[in-house]
Write a structure and sequence with these properties.
mainly beta; 13 strands; Jelly Rolls; 11-stranded mixed sheet; 138 residues; globular
């Protein structure tokens, strides 16, 4: 069972009710181009929240950086494209098709298209997610 409104998400993942999380997307479409960015400093942690900032957004894909406060979780979902996740701070629990992966700073994983997945913050973490929306013509 998934309930959703503009600011809170409540989800049921593998039979366990997940607590409400505040999702906040920071203003601005993309980061400034031709400028050096310290990726882990692009976004800060916010208590009881998941915060996201778009690095690049194109019709062919996007790159986003997100921070998860300790205890926060995102609902189960599927996407029509592969998704690459890289942990840039802290450690995360990523569940893909009910299989649990524990990722730490520097680790990355590809979440295959059309698979159920979610994220849990047993400790605070930051991640970069990359979606490429081409190459599925095969």
């Amino acid at each position: 069972m998934i309930k959703k409104d503009k600011k809170k998400v409540v989800a049921k993942v593998t039979g366990v009710k997940k607590k409400a999380a505040i999702k906040k997307t920071l203003p601005g479409k993309e980061l400034e181009k031709s400028k050096v960015h310290i990726i882990v400093e692009i976004i800060e942690y916010m208590s009881n929240a998941v915060v996201s900032k778009t690095i690049l957004k194109k019709t062919t894909g996007n790159v986003t950086v997100s921070s998860f406060a300790i205890g926060e979780e995102l609902e189960e979902k599927t996407t029509p494209f592969d998704l690459y996740i890289q942990i840039i701070d802290g450690a995360a629990e990523v569940i893909i098709d009910k299989k649990v992966f524990k990722l730490k700073k520097g680790d990355g994983i590809i979440i295959p298209a059309h698979t159920v997945h979610c994220f849990n913050a047993k400790e605070q973490f930051k991640m970069v997610s990359t979606v490429i929306k081409s190459g599925y013509e095969e």
